[in-house]
Amino acid sequence: MCGIIGYIGKEEALPVLLKGLTCMEYRGYDSAGLSVGDEQHAFQTVRAVGRVVQLTKRAAEVSLRGHVGIGHTRWATHGGITENNTHPHTSCDGKFILVHNGVIENYAALKEHLKKNGCTFYGDTDTEVLVNLIAWHYRQFSDISTLSKRFKASVRKALSELQGTYGIAVICTDCPNELIGARKSSPLVLGVGKEELFLASDIGAFGGRTKDVVFLSDGEIVHLQGNEFHITGADERALSPTVETVDWDTDVSDLGSYTSYMQKEIFEQPKSLENTMLGRFSADGSSAHLGGLQLSADELRRAERLLLIGCGSAYHACKVGEYLLERYARIPMEVEYASEFRYRNAPLSKNTLIFVVSQSGETRDTLDALHEARRKGLRVSAITNAVGSTVARESDGGVYQRSGSEIGVASTKAFTGQIATFLLLSLYLGRMREMSFSEGCRLVQALKDLPTCVKEVLASCDDWARTTAKKYAKCQSFYFIGRQMLFPIALEGALKLKEVSYIHAEAYPGGELKHGPIALIEPSFPTFVLASDPDMLSKNINNMTEIKARKGQVIALGIEGCPFPKDLCDDVFYLPKVHEAILPIITVLPLQLFAYYAALERGCDVDKPRNLAKAVTVE
Ligand code: G6P
After folding, report:
1. I want to staple 508 with a disulfide (CB 3.0 to 4.6 A). Which of 69, 142, 146, 512 is the partner?
2. Could you report the per-residue pLDDT of 516-528, keeping only the tens digit for each?
3. Ligand 1 pocket: which of 311, 384, 387, 617 to mutate (most atoms within 8 A of CB)
4. Rounded to an integer, what distance in angstroms lies between the CA atom of residue 167 and that of residue 159?
């Protein structure tokens, strides 16, 4: 894991690959490499631990020429972060060069077999086993009439022996004007440009050079030869693929006037939320419609329960969705981590509607949960941001959140986009069930006002977040507490802080503080109290009193018109009084900015936090 790019075309491959790798940097990685060559130029590989800039420097030291190439950013799974483990990997006979995302589970047995047959290995990765397996079959297939057919047969044979997941791009030096790509449970997209073809794990890697794509399905193999491509299915039959034009910003490299993608994406939220809601309100102004769900009104009315599934921030958005849908649609709700759902085998009635939520649409755990639910005959809808992603294609329908490309590893605008989608769903379902016309109208108006409100809150809390983060950035631990819909926001606030500043942070429902966590409160251990829900005000004040009694510091987010006693908070920011349903979105804004400024204060790279990946495509 993490990002693949392949190129064959009229341009020199090196700059195209470097741009592709740069466009995928946001996914998180710890080393990068590429191989370039063609009929005139022998293939050469450069690899570097660290960032793509390091790789670019290395590549400049060697004269890399050629119109064919593959590149990779690696997020270590098998083997440490070393140059030897960095992709591309080359077979020991030097004939094959390969990049791979995924995990090969039976790599140890295959390695043993290859070693017995004379293969030598320089690193610890499962990928090096795969490239040697292809080379070994190539040697066995010496009777196949053409090198090109032999190349393809060897890749197909090797893949058939694998257990696990893969997205690959592979070069055979005997066929220097060709590339082969294949996928199984790991994304791979073919880009069709003018006299050029691409392979990538992410359409962002095309660097804006084409929007015409073919999304490969599991088991498919694509063979690129010059300007032509041929796709075959798992049964070896030739397929006639549809080239789709994606409505998605495929050039994501522009930072504009911002210093980081995280900052840019936080401040894009007024616009991204507007996009999420655009054209989705009903004409009478009391409801919403979500056509992509492909669920009839009857099916929705019959639903007895909704189960929401996601990972990381998407899971937190599901937790907000749980409160929203329960309150406004009056439907029994459950939320589950994707990784837990898959193995839990909970009894589920046929009238349970499942929603999987994933910004990238490629998270392995979420996809596995989707497959598990469908295997049991349940209908799965998706909420996703990435157009054409695997989650989008493999679900029974869904809603695109239209938040635009999110590059920062720590989710910000996609998280609020997911909550906005749940708000629309609450309206849609609510109006079919118990929500009155006037209640619907009030909620629609609140949602229409949301982008402006978000803009104002961001403008007013930016300085506060910067100053407060500076004051507390040296603290080693934080609590975040909130009640009801603000409990998942506390979880998200703590996650944001951990992800980008590496400060330890935990979140609890306000009422839980006294049941254990309070033991750690002391003057250097601050607590964020999310107290912007007026119904919970007295309960939140109780929390502050308990913390102050133990000499803890309180950073409070309150609501205008409900001032806290001055002696109960060390720092406070008052949010505007808004419709309760949009409180989760406006409350998370100061927390996103706090995490962002705390990370800057501690010298962290906010867009590429250590150890994290934007899309985790392994289990
Ligand atoms: C990774 C990312 C998180 C993200 C989670 C789910 O762990 O680092 O920021 O929330 O995956 O991602 P998804 O694309 O499925 O929403």
Report:
1. 512
2. 999 999 999 999 9
3. 311
4. 11
